[in-house]
Amino acid sequence: MPPTDRIRDHAGAVGAATTVAAHRTRRRLRADQARQLADLLRHQILTGGFPDGTLPHETTLGTDYGASRNTVRQALDLLRAEGLVDRLPGVGTIVAARKYPHGLDRLMGLAETLHEHGRVTNEVRTLGPAPAPAPVAERLHVPPGADVLYIERLRRLNGLPLSLDLTYIPLDIGTALLDADLENTDVFRLLEGITGQRLGHAEITLEAVNADAHSSAVLQAPRGAAVLMLERLTHLADGRPVDLEFIRFRGDRITMSGLLHRSL
Predict the structure, then answer these.
(1) What is the distance between the alpha carbons of residues 59 and 67, in angstroms, rounded to a whole number?
(2) How many CB atoms lie within 10 A of CB 62?
(3) Is the dihedral of CA 140, 144, 150, 152 positive or negative?
(4) With the C-alpha atoms ordered 149, 228, 214, 186, is the resulting torsion angle positive or negative?
(5) N or C: which end of the chain has fewer CB within 10 A?
């Protein structure tokens, strides 16, 4: 092949590679912009920014946020995949679901936290004494292998599954809960009544986990769906640990929020 042909072929290959790279860059940038726009729209959805339940037209969203129509559509697709919005022919994009706010800056039971949003009911699936696993015994300050009260509850808000709660309570306190109205009353309120003390503080850990087969079935969520796992160890006002909980929230129905102050 003559040198000029080789140079021409090489230049063509470089040009094609440059075109492909540029196309990939544009796609990546549009995906980044769509994710950013989805975050902004999600915030508005969760805070009641669309009171009539309908999002503005795609063209209006593009103008308001300086985004192309393809970027707007991609952002709405992300929100649709989360179950937050839906597309209705002749209507447009509507809010399909809402998430309920759960504060992380106050120690409150679920019914206390969500009382403005409806009625919380509890289906008690398991209730009774059980040997404390070593990590539970350590955190509740009970002897290894000692019995604790174990409670498993499915918690609903306005009839919809919201969380699956696994709770461990020292048996000297928990025995009084065996005859309590756990279906309609937060455990926090019952603990304060039994002990005659206020609850003092709690240590919490929040992370996202994939729903196992059992959790998926109970929460009526897709298997493997992301759920919010809240681990909480609650203490009485005198410092005694009295309630260790592992709570799996449906991530599509709850949002966690708090007020943080900077301290150096």
Answers:
(1) 9
(2) 18
(3) positive
(4) positive
(5) C
pLDDT > 90: percent of the chain: 54
Q: What sign for the dihedral angle of Cα 42, 208, 260, 243?
A: positive
72-85: per-residue pLDDT in tens? Answer: 999 999 888 878 88
The upper half-sphere exposure of residue 260, i.e. CA atoms within 13 Å in the direction of its Cβ, equals 5
> Is the full-model pTM beyond 0.90?
no
Q: Is the pLDDT of residue 221 over 60?
A: yes
With contact defined as beta carbons under 8 Å apart, do 165 and 120 qualify? no
Q: What is the rounded CA–CA span in Å between residue 101 and residue 214? A: 25
**Euclidean distance between CA atoms 105 and 237, whole angstroms:** 17
DSSP tag of 116: G
> What b/e sequence results for 85-108 when a residue is b if at least 16 CB atoms lie within 10 Å of its CB, and e otherwise?
beeeeeeebebbeebbebeeeebb
